[in-house]
Amino acid sequence: MNLFLREYLNILKLEKNLSDNTIDSYKSDLSAFTTFLKNDFNIDDPEKISYNHVSSFFELLFELELAGSSAARYLSSLKGFFKYLLHANYITKNPVDKIESPKRKKNIPEVLTIFEMESILSKPDTKEKLGLRDKAVLELMYACGLRVSEVINLKVSNLFFNEEIIRVFGKGLKERLVPIGRSAVIWIIKYLAESRPLLVKRTLSENYVFLNNRGTKLSRMGIWKITARYFKEAEIKKEVHPHTFRHSFATHLIEGGADLRAVQEMLGHADISTTQIYTHIDRDYIKQVHKDYHPRG
């Protein structure tokens, strides 16, 4: 990939006569993408890159809470690069073609109702080893509002069920303690006792909680596939993704009367202004309650 990237950047510089700053911007965006492919999927051949790989990259950008304008710039960089690869016959299909342009501003994220969440959580077949794992994953994501990176990097040594908390490492490896509900604890304990021993590989699994069939920790794409499967089975029609669990977690807490500062701490937001987006959702909810129940609504 680095060879193709260098060739493309040289063409931009020599033939397109772009400024050094613009070239550096393209290099930064595309290097981030190629590093992501190598680290998460061990892909170094552009022909092997699929739509799902690109989608997973943008899911990561969204998880990192990048501004819509920054995500749009990444997409522009990728479109130019893959258009060049296709034109030069280095690839036979363009994996970026169907990627939609990120919205530059989205004030209120999509959230699930409690009924929709219950429907999703009921779908995994817990009699199967992977179904039991999936159930534990989904229960944890909703119970704690974790980022995908926090789920896949969670270790057994970070579970403190007697205290009903878990330790997670967020952006910048910032540590925080998050409360965990009884339902999630029950299902994770069941997974650790019955399913994880069937997946574990002594030299590969290390201490990670959630493993795939190969005995290594789940990847971001693994979480994406798990959530997509149960969204589909629950017939969720909304625009949803793994981060929807985090949005729904925060929204349901605030709708239930939780203190905004407490929710900020649980989510690991450095700035409360990031958390305050959920108060807008809460106001919409309150207005709907007023409309539904007030005698002159």
Short structural description:
This protein is mainly α. The protein is about 55% helix and about 5% strand.
Folded structure, characterized:
It is a single chain. This protein is mainly α and 297 residues long. It has two domains: 2-87, DNA polymerase, domain 1 (Orthogonal Bundle); 114-292, Orthogonal Bundle (hpI Integrase, Chain A). The chain is built from 14 helices and three strands. It has a three-stranded antiparallel β-sheet. Strand 1 and strand 2 form a beta hairpin. It is globular. 28% of the residues are buried. The mean pLDDT is 85.
- CATH homology-level superfamily of the largest domain: Intergrase catalytic core
Rounded mean pLDDT score: 85
CATH topology heading of the largest domain: hpI Integrase, Chain A
CATH-scheme architecture of the largest domain = Orthogonal Bundle
Distance between the termini: 60 Å
What's the helix-strand series?
Answer: HHHHHHHEEEHHHHHHH
CATH class descriptor name of the largest domain: Mainly Alpha
**Biggest β-sheet description:** 3 strands, antiparallel
Structural class by sheet pairing and helices: mainly alpha
Helical coverage, percent range:
55-70%
* Radius of gyration using CA atoms only: 21 Å
Number of helices: 14
Number of strands: 3
Overall morphology: globular
Beta content comes to under 5%
Count of all domains: 2
Q: Largest sheet, order of strands side by side?
A: 1-2-3
